[in-house]
Design brief:
Elements lengths: L2 H4 L4 H9 L1 H10 L6 H9 L5 H4 L8 H19 L3 H9 L5 E6 L2 E6 L4 E8 L2 H10 L12 E7 L7 E7 L3 H6 L9 E9 L7 H17 L5 E6 L8 H4 L4 E6 L4 E3 L2 E3 L1 H4 L11 E2 L7 E7 L2 H9 L3 E2 L2 H6 L1
Parallel strand pairs: 6-7, 8-13
Antiparallel strand pairs: 1-2, 2-3, 3-4, 4-5, 5-6, 7-12, 8-12, 9-10, 9-11
Helix pairs in contact: 3-6, 4-6
């Protein structure tokens, strides 16, 4: 399988979200949910249904996934409504305006299609705000308690970032073993959460990743070797931002989603808890495409190793063991 093939979407998920497109948009408008949020949430929850449930009696209207979309719309609407006033306004009032960010005499400037300029600030995000984004706006909907670094882009004078990223230390053995070089786990960072509002400049995330890497190198000196992050084609993510930010594919890992009380939960969030052995977990009922892992090196030597690496395909057994 070529590198491009592994980024191709899960065809079942794509078919369902394509057919339900107009109804998803209607639900987003009804519950004041920004465009695209519900589509991603639904994509994440489709694997909990079997093919028989999805294609009931050959029905191509996808009634079961549509009912799931209605349920998720209620949840998303409540989450967004619970946000701090300023953050809620930023998220719900943004539109897909066309702007980009550029550097100008040491400053970061947002420029819209009329040529209007606005200064942008790159800085650390208050962890309380970062966790609010992780829990209520990021598609996973779970905070990473082990988050070490919260970074963001802010329009000057604003309290909340329009683009956000979060980093934790690597803690999975199967990923360490798949790296194209030997390194201790604590020397690798994982970009665990990345989010931007709909009205963010088109190149905001690429800039945030670039500035984030520079910040980490400068603040932590030689503590970290590089960053890795995941792209999930089952939720129709294609990795374009990472590809344009000097991240290179080094591994694929089985995507085996699990659900509790009908909602997606991460393996990390339930490990060591009663939930893990409650017998109430629902596991994926359809075949999912592997998650793609990409890496970025802080030095030329490590960057070259990522760029030249052969893709390692992690087995289900290795994934479940660590």
């Amino acid at each position: 399988m070529s590198t491009e093939d592994i980024f191709s979407p899960n065809l079942i998920v794509k078919e369902i979200t394509d057919v339900l497109r107009d109804r998803i948009i209607d639900l987003e408008k009804k519950h004041s949910i920004p465009a695209g949020y519900l589509k991603t949430a639904l994509a994440l929850h489709i694997p909990k249904f079997s093919l028989e449930e999805i294609y009931t009696d050959g029905n191509v209207e996808f009634q079961t996934p549509y009912l799931e979309a209605k349920r998720l719309a209620l949840i998303l609407g409540k989450k967004i409504n619970s946000l701090p006033k300023g953050l809620k306004h930023l998220v719900t009032s943004s539109t897909d305006k066309l702007s980009k960010v550029k550097h100008n005499h040491g400053k970061i400037i947002e420029v819209d299609i009329q040529g209007k300029e606005l200064e942008i600030e790159f800085k650390e995000v208050d962890p309380e705000i970062g966790f609010a984004i992780q829990e209520n706006l990021h598609y996973i909907g779970k905070r990473r308690e082990d988050t070490l670094i919260h970074l963001g882009l802010f329009r000057k004078g604003e309290q909340f970032p329009f683009a956000y990223s979060a980093y934790s230390k690597l803690d999975r053995i199967y990923l360490q073993k798949a790296l194209p070089f030997d390194v201790e786990m604590e020397k690798m960072l994982v970009l665990t959460r990345a989010y931007n509002i709909n009205g963010a400049p088109v190149n905001a995330m690429s800039l945030l990743f670039s500035l984030g890497a520079q910040f980490i190198v400068q603040k932590f000196k030689e503590t970290y070797t590089g960053i890795i992050s995941a792209v999930n084609p089952n939720i129709l993510f294609y990795g374009s931002i990472f590809k344009g930010s000097s991240f290179y594919t080094f591994a694929t890992v089985p995507f085996l989603p699990i659900y509790f009380d009908g909602n997606y939960v991460t393996r990390k969030s339930i490990e060591g808890t009663d939930t893990m052995n409650s017998g109430k977990l629902i596991r994926t009922k359809i075949e999912c495409k592997p998650t793609i892992w990409m890496g970025h090196g802080f030095s030329k030597k490590i960057a070259d190793k990522f760029m030249d690496s052969k893709i390692v395909h992690i087995s289900e057994e290795s994934y479940l063991q660590g």
